[in-house]
Specification:
The protein is 27% helix and 20% strand. By secondary structure, the protein is of the alpha/beta class. The chain has a ten-stranded mixed sheet, sandwiched between helices.
């Protein structure tokens, strides 16, 4: 195991879709190490229409957990790719382990920067969230328990969307998130955007009290998005008194969770985080000497 540190209408139809079963990680050609969770019971509905982003029809893939494991919570996932590339299909293997633990996962499509300029990506994210909430009954989830998950550029979208009051998200999960819009501004933002607009497109300045509980993952050998950016993100979350954690992994690069053992480990940590912050909230007393003890502190 790796080591980590620090702890549209209410009745809108489901839309076009195809239905397939997932016969475990082996069916996806994944190594045996990826089969430690019960992915054999995960079912997938492909290319469900959720609405439109501008002139683009937006689709999602719905991953349903094995029967008997349902936690009635939805996780809406956004892929990476520097805002300019990538697809919902690219995160299939990353979505399976957390789905197998009882969560309904929605792999979402959004407009890439060549199709729609910022904030089109956040608008598309909120379209997916509204659709999930409107279809909560048929998805088998609690409409109050919707979390957002993002990977790299998708992490940026997730973090920003979580700050939007109308999104009403229960939690945010960010994998090696891009937290600064500046490196992507030329392609992502409308022509002529000034420094203030670029800064406003970054998620960190929008973090404030009331932001949803957030867990962040980052590889310490990441040279695509520096791990220090997630450390600064954690600082902003803590300053705003947001329940938050950063888990860093030694010796692994960007997109480290493409390796099944890391996807499994992160799914386990995410499950634990959501259980104690959203599904079964629990607080812990401050440290003190044992009851009836001799008054000795820690060694």
């Amino acid at each position: 195991m790796p080591v980590y540190n620090s702890p549209m209408s209410k009745h809108m139809p489901m839309g076009r879709r195809t239905f397939v079963g997932v016969g475990g990680a082996a069916a996806l050609g994944l190594p045996l190490a990826a089969q430690t969770s019960n992915t054999a019971g995960v079912k997938v509905e492909k290319d469900v229409v959720v609405g439109k982003g501008g002139d683009t029809e937006l689709h999602c893939d719905i991953y349903r957990p094995p029967a008997g494991t349902e936690k009635r919570m939805a996780l809406v996932h956004f892929h990476g790719g520097g805002f300019a590339r990538g697809s919902k299909e690219a995160i299939s293997a990353k979505v399976l382990p957390i789905t197998a633990r009882g969560y309904v996962s929605i792999a979402a499509q959004y407009r890439l920067s060549g199709v729609g300029k910022w904030p089109a990506q956040v608008e598309d994210a909120k379209t997916h969230i509204r659709w999930v909430r409107a279809n909560a009954t048929r998805l088998g989830i609690d409409p109050k328990n919707i979390a957002i998950v993002g990977y790299s550029a998708g992490g940026h979208i997730a973090l920003y969307t979580a700050s939007e009051a109308d999104a009403q998200l229960a939690a945010c999960i960010a994998f090696y998130p891009a937290t600064d819009a500046k490196p992507y501004a030329a392609a992502l933002l409308p022509a002529g955007s000034d420094e203030a607009a670029i800064a406003n497109a970054s998620p960190v300045p929008h973090i404030k009290e009331g932001y949803p509980p957030t867990v962040v993952y980052h590889g310490l050998s990441d040279v695509t998005v520096a791990p220090e950016s997630s450390q600064r993100l954690l600082g902003a979350l803590r300053a705003a008194k947001v329940p938050s954690e950063l888990h860093t992994f030694d010796g692994v690069p960007h997109e480290f969770d493409q390796h099944p053992e890391f996807a499994e480990s992160c799914a386990s940590i995410t499950d634990f985080f959501l259980e104690r912050h959203i599904l079964h909230p629990k607080t812990y007393p401050p440290f003190g000497p044992p009851a009836g003890g001799g008054g000795r502190g820690p060694a």
